[in-house]
Amino acid sequence: MTDRKKITLPYLYKKYQDGEPIVMLTCYDYPTAYLQEQAGVEMILVGDSLGMTMLGYETTLPVTMEDMIRHCKGVRTGAPTAWLIGDMPYMSYQPSVETAIRNAGRFMAEAACDAIKLEGGREMADRMAAIVAAGIPAMGHLGLTPQSMSALGGFKVQGRGAAQAKRIVEDARILEEAGAFSILLEMVPDRVCKVITERAGIPIISLGSGPHASGQLLIYHDMFGLYPRFQPKMAKVYGNAGEVILNGLKQYTSEVIGRQFPQPENWFTMKDEAYDELLKLLEAED
Ligand code: KIV
User: Fold this and answer.
1) CB of 87 closer than 6 A to ligand 1?
2) Ligand 1 atom at minimum distance from 49 CA
3) 137 contacts: CB under 8 Å, gap ≥ 6
4) Do 266 and 209 share a domain, yes or no?
5) Beta strands 182-186 and 204-207: pairing type?
């Protein structure tokens, strides 16, 4: 573990006010959370993208609250000091304000999250306000919102046209007024992100939306070549762990088949006396 103090909302706001970039990543499991904590990642999002990265679904839509809580618990154990954000899965907040508050509360009570995130603009302002009124910090998510992929027409940059960009700028203001502590902008043009950041009084986090934000987010699996289906343009690859793991797996397979694995250092022995006694015991029984 590190000797880092618990990341708090005042800490994040201080960084924001000082113009210091906030470091954010997605994470879905204990060993990765452990490494992210060591590396100094400040905000961790247990995204419902785990449906795709961890469970192999085509979209995030089948992800349940139970999936989210289980993964959040593992991440919290590995990253005890990070500001942990649980991503509200599809239909855990859309049906009603009450559903939204109850499910947001589950992230806090059952998985020790610090905050939740939900997708959507003005149409989700009442959910945002109610969750915040219940004492739960909430992050907004605008631009490409994967739970609405079908309505948005696919995995596309949002807000390239002036009218759509204006709507996103307005939505950001509405979410801030509803009490969001921060807003994530996914795949909007850099200048739209800049306009929103300049107008906002809360940290704006960019995922593929350029440098003019209060912090940056990447999807962990994209950074290390761990998602086999596609590699989004916005993802910088920091190392090809997928290739390293694949090579290791191929070597293991061939060593088992070729009887090169295991070697003596990979197994356990017993003393001769104990073994002789075992043989005697077995003989006596036969
Ligand atoms: O689920 C997720 O990881 C997300 C990111 C795409 C922002 O919501």
Assistant:
1) yes
2) 1
3) 9, 114, 115, 116, 181
4) no
5) parallel
Residue 48 CA to ligand 1 centre (angstroms) = 6
pLDDT of residue 155: 85
Q: How far apart are CA 219 and CA 103, in angstroms?
A: 24
Ligand 1 atom, smallest distance to 184 CA: 7
Q: Which amino acid makes up residue 217? A: L
Q: Is 46 a domain residue?
A: yes
| CATH number of domain containing 180 | 3.20.20.60
- Total tally of structural domains belonging to the chain: 2
* CB distance 52 to 12 below 8 Å: no
- How many angstroms separate the alpha carbon of residue 269 from the centre of ligand 1? 48
| CA nearest neighbour of 71 among 92, 91, 90, 85 | 85
Q: pTM of this prediction?
A: 0.95
User: Is residue 4 assigned to a domain?
Assistant: no
What was the pLDDT predicted at 232?
87
Q: Which residues of the chain have pLDDT under 50?
A: none
In whole angstroms, give the CA distance from residue 29 to residue 23: 18
- Tell whether ligand 1 has an atom less than 6 A from the beta carbon of residue 114: no
Contact residues for 85 (Cβ-Cβ < 8 A; gap 6+): 43, 44, 45, 46, 113, 114, 115, 116, 117, 139
49 lines ligand 1 (CB under 6 A): yes
Q: What residue owns the CA closest to ligand 1's atom 3?
A: 47
Q: Is 184 in the pocket of ligand 1 (CB under 6 A)?
A: yes
pLDDT at residue number 230: 82
pLDDT value for 270? 98
37 is catalytic: no
Predicted local confidence at residue 236, as pLDDT: 95
Catalytic option among 37, 42, 176, 186: 186
